[in-house]
Amino acid sequence: MYRTYNLGWIEVICGCMFAGKTEELIKQIKVLEYAKKKVIAIKPTIDNRYSDNMIASHAGNLCKCICVDPHDLKAIECYVDDPSVDAIVIEEVQFFDFGIVDICERLASAKKRVIVGGLDTDFRGEPFPVTASLLARAEFINKLSAVCCVCGAPATRTQRLINGKPAKYNDPVILVGANECYEARCRRCHKIIK
């Protein structure tokens, strides 16, 4: 499949929470490392749910990474001109400033394989602008789903819960958390208080 492309492209792994996005990223990193490719894994400092300095899945799998302030992209930009780097993997891409989109484009144009993972929509069910822009520019997209915690249908939405009740529409978009405040839900079971 990849032989039809010149070196350098963007892949997006997206979906709701608990869909296995981080597991897929870690798998991709291991496959690339097995092939003796130099991989740089990056996550935003804001995501410290399970580890301060590792990419960590909800299932407990870990991978070494570089932690980057999501508002200071210089630590990622330096890899555009590094010929020794084959691939850049960016976890929780929705937390980065919009400039990450341009950096991903420049990395891909510099013949790097760019793999980003993140939420495609926020708790309201609305697109994260960074992820949406990367989806439009990507050569490859892998949209994952989870299982709805209410009815068992395929889940594509992230339900935020505050004290067991759906969050209000006007609540802040960014709230880092896991199963203490989020559930995977299908379209029908996803609720927002307006």
Written description of the protein model:
This protein is α/β, with parallel strands linked by helices and 194 residues long. It is built from 4 helices and 13 strands. It has a 6-stranded parallel sheet with strand order 5-2-6-7-1-8, with helices on both faces. The N and C termini lie far apart (45 Å). The model has no long low-confidence stretch (mean pLDDT 91).
Observed structural traits:
single chain, globular, alpha/beta, 20% helix
Helix fraction by DSSP (H/I, runs of at least 4): 10-25%
- Count the beta strands: 13
Order of helices and strands: EHEEEEHEHEHEEEEEE
Q: What ranges have pLDDT less than 50 throughout 5 or more consecutive residues?
A: none
Question: How large a portion of the residues is in β-strands, by DSSP E?
Answer: 25-35%
